[in-house]
Amino acid sequence: MIARSQRERLLEAAIRVVAEKGYAAATVADLTREAGISRTTFYAMFDDKEGCFLAAYDGIVDALVRRVTLAYETEKGWPQRARAGLAALLEALAEEPAVARLALVDVGAAGPAAQRRYRAALQRLTPFFDEGRDFAPGGRNLPANTSRMAIGAVAGLISDEVTEGRAEYLPSLLSEVLFATLVPYIGPAAAAREVGEKTR
Amino acid sequence: MASESRRDLILAAMIRVVGGKGYKETSVADVIEEAGTSRTTFYKHFEDKHECFLAAYEMLVEQVFAEVTSNCDGAESWLQRVENGLATIVKLFALDPELARTAVVEVAAAGAEARQLHWDAVARFTQYLEGGRELSDGRELPENISLMSAGAVSGLIFDELLAGRAAQLPALLPDLLFAMLVPYIGPRAAAEEMRRVAATT
Questions:
Q1: What was the pLDDT predicted at B1?
Q2: Which residues of A touch B162 (CB under 8 A)?
Q3: pTM here?
């Protein structure tokens, strides 16, 4: 077994502690205790709680984006690629409801830098949506912001479920998030056809 | 001065200060200085900063609502009402960037109760979107379509405010309108509305 670095351990501990206690209540002492590292080691790596949290947050996002990318790229054709990417995203979030809550809802409590990270994380999904432009008839004439709109719609649907404490049921939201992804590009009738099943 | 109006002064000050400094950085001292009231007056009305913020946020939501509904004539078409409502919000936010930041961005930093107030407000606005179903030619639209619409619009507004570009929001109105309409009427018809609004603003 490969020994994990102290940094990795600390970042994972930060996610667990913040998910459990909330960002405001979590202290550096909580993080070092959970990670089993010394205060000195902590401050050798990070200036403060915020720096550590942001690094941990980036780790969550990287892992999610990797998983989505992998699923997306195994398929051919945009609607199928989008479906696979979204399904992977919903499954990943459902596997760890506490992380999903932290990533999407509680991140706002960690201040403006964290909020910027959250918005930047969403923008990393833009290329997957932009492919809809080539797929859609007349897609070139859509507003430049179309992918951001679709992402906002998807994020709204997912955040609503997570806020209501239903993160573990996210995979059942696939029809709706797929519809939200497709609709700005191809309209409601074609989107409903692609979704291929009755929405609830 | 009547006690109620002093309370309102404190609430208005809370909205301005939080919008300018951020929720975390805001102290009760900042708020009473902005409001021109005493500490005693503040604590006569509120337990602490958090309680005051929640009350201020509720007032803010009512303000925005009153503004939006006063510009929404029930006799107009759904499309026209939705457009007017959106234009009102955008104008209000551009004129008062502090209010906008508090309403959309800083509320996320003020805890779970505050975020609930925000969600409730979004839900109240999305009710108005339900009328768009009639434009779908009898097609069955997803149950939560208004949430898609609201998510797309609020995402764009959030990014502008986070980047400190409240003043540029009115220029984004055509795009916002497209985002709001497209789940109901599709990209071609939504783009037409977008171009029509862009030509008149």
A1: 64
A2: 112, 115-116, 119
A3: 0.90
